[in-house]
Amino acid sequence: MFLFCPQNVYSLLTWAVYSKRQSLPEYRGGARGILTLCTPEPPAAYIQKEGSLFMELYHAFVRTMDPALPVYSGVLVEDGYILRTGDFAVLRATHPDARVEDWDGAALLPGFIDGHSHLSAVAWDRLLWDARPSPEGVCDNPAALRESGQEYLRTHTLPHDTWMLGFGCDSARLGRLPTREDLDEISGQIPILLTAESGEWSVANSQALRLLGYDRPEEAPSPLPAALLAEPAISARVKGPGRAQLLLAVADAARLYASFGVTTMQDARSTAAELNLLAEAGHQGLIGGEVACYLDEKTAPDHLPCQPPAQNPYHDRCRMAGIKLMLDGAVHKKTAWLSHPYQSPPAGQGPDYRGAPLREDGEITELLAHCIRCHWQPVIHADGDAAIDQLLRCWQAARTETGSREELRPVAVHAQTVRRDQLEQMAELGILASFSHDPVYYWGDYHVHSVLGAQRAASLSPLAWTLEAGVGFTLHQNAPAAPPHTLFSIQNAAVRRTRSGRPLGPEQTVPVQAALEAVTIQAARQLFEEGRKGSITPGKLADFTLLEADPLAVSPDRIADIRVLATVKAGRFIYRT
Question: Structure pTM?
Answer without folding.
Answer: 0.88
